[in-house]
Specification:
By secondary structure, the protein is an all-beta fold. Helices cover about 0% and strands about 45% of the residues. A hairpin with a 7-residue loop joins strand 7 (about 85-90) and strand 8.
């Protein structure tokens, strides 16, 4: 910040980055969601390998938002422009589950930091939905 230049630049993206979240307990883990349909998880401890050494999930739709589950730090959720909500375990290669949350582009997603299994989504269909995703 003092020099006014970036310390590290990540060049692994094929499209616009729409969501960026640091892990709630391991700040070296950076989660991104992109218009290329991919979620990427970077370990920022080694800037030299950042753009080549990362974990990736392809959801085949623009990622509008990603959020960490602060109550269960190995898990995160993503919402996409086709209205789907995906629950992920960062240790696995595929979503634990995916549901059609909205009929149009979904852009809002919040996981409760105090109530386990509670999420809120919003979308272009004009709806705000409260979810009990522990039932999935």
């Amino acid at each position: 910040m003092d020099n006014g230049v970036p310390h590290t630049t990540i060049t692994s993206f094929e499209e616009k980055v729409q969501s960026v979240k640091f892990h709630p307990t391991t700040p070296s883990n950076l989660l991104t969601g992109c218009c290329d349909g991919k979620i990427r998880l970077f370990d920022c401890r080694n800037p030299d390998t950042l753009s080549t050494n990362f974990k990736s999930w392809n959801l085949n739709s623009e990622i509008e938002k990603t959020v960490w589950n602060t109550l269960e730090p190995n898990f995160f959720m993503a919402i996409t422009n086709d209205g789907k909500m995906h629950y992920m375990d960062m240790r696995l290669e595929a979503p634990l589950w995916s549901i059609q949350a909205h009929t149009s582009e979904a852009s809002g997603l919040i996981l409760s930091p105090t109530v386990s299994g509670m999420a809120i989504t919003t979308a272009a269909d004009g709806l705000l939905k409260v979810w009990d995703y522990s039932a999935q």
